[in-house]
């Protein structure tokens, strides 16, 4: 059974099936509501129910005034929701295309840089910061695109997850010219147009979408002030020299690496990466902030930044959740 779902304040309407999540119904209709992990962990898709009833996977029913996760709640009636809708993504078509491995490079002990080449007729139109679903030997996993949309092909940064099905395949047997498939583009993590300075915060391979967005800003010769904060457990875990190179080349780009673990070889900033941001700025009110990493890091950043006068409307995030 289908129900009418209306989104405010944009006044967008679409039909939602009772056996599909609100988000899946919206995406099927070409309507891009804010989301990230799509499995109920990150909270990015949280919206306010203005009217009607929705049900979560545990059978809990939500009504007027309740907060719901559109990625896992299904409509039980016609709904009215206060949710963020992105016209920038209107017309963007998700598709599945074949690709071949162009190169494989081990850039650190547990991170592989994978570049994929697409058929000439299968160019993927994505916004820097978005992700794709990578399919190989019956396994599907989501990875952020690590290159700007001006570049050819797709670059991915893949961490070797203990007992991870996809990462085990990639680290043990993937070869140049191996055939894979990608589905995308996906997600609502992309640069919002404004003249405000930007703070990027990355944890681990959360650097991948940050790299894509910064490269895009550089290529379009943006004059926006850019601060890149990248956190790793140990100094040896930093797998790219690019942010330091950009810091040295461009006056408006600033790179701050932060190590959270006990590393006697490290003489730079230490602690949680978002704490470095708090230490460096008296107020975060003037900034657009983009955070990519674990749900714990993103949640802590958002809560602590609000205490530094950050507007939640200027905080954008993409949560990485490890899958076996």
Task: Give a concise summary.
Its cofactor is [2Fe-2S] cluster. The chain contains 6 helices and 20 strands.
Molecular structure report:
The structure is a single chain. The chain has 324 residues and is of the alpha/beta class. It folds into 3 domains: 2-89, Beta-grasp domain (Ubiquitin-like (UB roll), Roll), CATH 3.10.20.30; 95-186, Translation factors (Elongation Factor Tu (Ef-tu), domain 3); 198-319, Rossmann fold (3-Layer(aba) Sandwich). The protein contains 6 helices and 20 strands. The chain has helices spanning 22-28, 165-172, 207-219, 242-249, 273-280, 295-306; strands at residues 2-8, 12-17, 46-51, 54-55, 61-62, 67-69, 74-75, 79-82, 95-108, 111-117, 131-136, 139-144, 154-159, 179-186, 198-203, 226-232, 253-259, 269-270, 288-293, 315-319. A 6-stranded antiparallel sheet has the order 12-11-14-9-10-13, covered by helices on one side. Strands 18-17-16-15-19-20 form a 6-stranded parallel sheet, with helices on both faces. The chain has a 5-stranded mixed sheet with strand order 2-1-8-3-6, with helices on one face. The longest helix has 13 residues, at 207-219. The mean pLDDT is 94.
Which percent range describes the beta-strand content?
Answer: 25-35%
CATH architecture call of the largest domain? 3-Layer(aba) Sandwich
Low-confidence stretches: none
Number of helices: 6
What is the CATH C-level name of the largest domain? Answer: Alpha Beta
| Major sheet | 6 strands, antiparallel
Q: Give the SSE order as H and E letters.
A: EEHEEEEEEEEEEEHEEHEHEEHEHE
**Spatial gap, N to C terminus:** 34 Å
> Whole-number average pLDDT?
94
Rg from Cα: 20 Å
Give the strand line-up of the largest sheet: 12-11-14-9-10-13
Structural class: alpha/beta
């Amino acid at each position: 059974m289908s129900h009418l779902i209306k989104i405010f304040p944009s006044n967008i309407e679409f039909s939602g099936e009772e056996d599909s999540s609100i988000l899946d119904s919206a995406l099927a209709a070409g309507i891009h509501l804010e989301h990230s992990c799509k499995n109920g962990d990150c909270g990015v898709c949280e919206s306010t129910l203005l009217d009607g009833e929705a049900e979560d996977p545990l059978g809990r029913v939500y009504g007027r005034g309740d907060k719901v996760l559109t990625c896992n709640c299904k409509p039980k009636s016609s709904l009215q929701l206060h949710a963020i809708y992105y016209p920038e993504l209107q017309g963007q078509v998700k598709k599945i295309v074949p690709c071949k491995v162009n190169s494989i490079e081990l850039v650190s002990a547990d991170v592989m840089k994978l570049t994929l080449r697409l058929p000439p007729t299968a160019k993927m139109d994505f916004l820097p910061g978005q992700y794709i679903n990578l399919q190989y030997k019956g396994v599907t996993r989501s990875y952020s695109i690590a290159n700007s949309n001006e570049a050819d092909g797709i670059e991915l940064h893949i961490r070797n997850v203990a007992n991870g099905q996809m990462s085990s395949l990639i680290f043990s047997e993937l070869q140049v010219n191996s055939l894979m498939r990608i589905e995308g583009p996906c997600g609502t993590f992309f640069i919002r147009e404004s003249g405000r300075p930007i703070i990027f915060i990355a944890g681990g391979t959360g650097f991948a979408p940050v790299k894509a967005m910064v490269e895009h800003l550089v290529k379009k010769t943006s004059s926006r002030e850019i601060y890149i904060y990248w956190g790793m457990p140990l100094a040896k875990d930093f797998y790219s020299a690019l942010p330091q190179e950009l810091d040295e080349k461009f006056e408006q780009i600033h790179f701050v690496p932060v190590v959270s673990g006990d590393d006697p070889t490290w003489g730079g900033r230490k602690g949680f990466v978002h704490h470095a941001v708090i230490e460096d700025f008296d107020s975060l009110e003037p900034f657009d902030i983009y955070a990519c990493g674990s749900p714990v890091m993103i949640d802590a950043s958002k809560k602590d930044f609000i205490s530094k006068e950050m507007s939640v409307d200027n905080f954008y995030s993409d949560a990485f959740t490890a899958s076996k």
